[in-house]
User: What shape does this take?
Amino acid sequence: MSFENIEVVVDNKVGLITIDRPKFLNALNSQTINELSACIDEFESNADVRVIVITGQGEKAFVAGADIKEFINFNKEQGKELSRKGQELLFNKVNDLSKPVIAAINGFALGGGLELALSCHIRMASENAKLGLPELSLGLIPGYGGTQRLMQIIGKGKALELILSSNMISAEEGEKHGLINHVFSSEDLLVATLKLANKIAGNSAIAISKSLKAMQIGSDVSKGLDAEIELFGDCFGTEDFKEGTAAFLEKRKPNFK
Assistant: This one.
């Protein structure tokens, strides 16, 4: 496999994917989403890969969000398609995979970055990690599963607080609320994550797959995800979206009317 925006290594039945756009804080543009999707498909069909780990290049960011410049001029229908395509290509695919996916969160995991981590089955983080869904500050809502998966993992009240405030939280607070499984130093994060991945890879692949399937059936959020797509797209027809994204790119505080 050859990619431009991700690096891929397979060792001891563990497939390691590193999102490699450090100049852009590993932001998810369409090419990166397509490459991640293709790599996940390859790992899904590869019997030599039993566990997948996703991380970001460097210590500053896991994924700092989506690439706003790609969709700043989208209308409602384009916004809905952006959400629907992203969920189908990557976020739902990761969530529904028959092999465990572990996020090693090194730095910022914001917006689509946190939504990618939420799609993973297990989340490990470094001490400097910052987590949040700041979409409302752009005049949007989370559109890659964030409204559903965050609530499912940490409960409705805390999820509403994080989404409605656009606040970031630390890795330690994320661990307190069950969003993060374990917190490590930046130096130890990947080592510890791969240690867990290797431990899981030593178990029965069939039993792992059936465990994931059983737990996914018990936490089906498909109706909520469909609603999220529609509501996310609706935001693209508002003046708040225009003001929020303009303010972000101009590095100023938005003035919502």
